[in-house]
Amino acid sequence: DVQLQASGGGSVQAGGSLRLSCAASGFIFDDYAIGWFRQAPGKGRARVACIVNSDGSTYYTDSVKSRFTISSDSDKNTVHLQMDSLKPEDTGVYYCAADYYPRKRLATFGPPRLGPWYEYDYFGRGTLVTVSS
Fold first, then answer.
1. Of 3, 11, 114, 22, nearest in space to 72 by CA
2. Using the 8-state DSSP alphabet, how is residue 109 labeled?
3. Which among 77, 99, 101, 91 is positioned nearest to 126, based on CA atoms?
4. 20 within 8 A of 127, measured Cβ to Cβ
5. pLDDT at res. 49
6. Torsion angle of C-alpha atoms 113, 127, 25, 23, degrees rounded to 10
């Protein structure tokens, strides 16, 4: 069975840091792009970062650039999201999702489209991040 388990959430003050982890199993990790999505209270799920495991390329939404870093550990089938200089607007439930994007597709079509969460193949349970001012 495919599993994506996010962990590492918690409560921090503005300016603090958290490191989220997404443990994946049940699929070929290196053939997938892994995205982190955030759902703020009363809002929809928005992507904050993505890493394409087949070539290591990374993508960030503008609001988190220079503050968040996404990385992948293929030995452990785990993707991390290091979040620094956290702001109250970073509050929300963070989910990780997997989108099939192997090296062959990357070579044929170029970078992934980075579509919304419902276009991803697999979606896991989230972890809550609360940033207080």
1. 22
2. H
3. 91
4. yes
5. 96
6. 90
The model's pLDDT over 89-123, given as tens digits with 9 standing for 90+, comes to 999 999 999 999 999 998 998 888 888 888 899 99
Sign of CA dihedral 117, 120, 125, 131: negative
- Inter-residue contact 79 to 22 (CB < 8 Å): yes
Q: How many CB atoms lie within 10 A of CB 8?
A: 16
Calculate the CA dihedral of residues 25, 69, 36, 18 and round it to 10 degrees: 90
Strand-strand pairing, 32-39 and 3-7: unpaired
What DSSP letter does each residue of 39-102 carry, written as one string? E-TTS-EEEEEEEETTTTEEEE-GGGTTTEEEEEETTTTEEEEEE-S--GGG-EEEEEEEEE--
Rounded distance between C-alpha atoms, residue 41 and residue 1, angstroms? 30
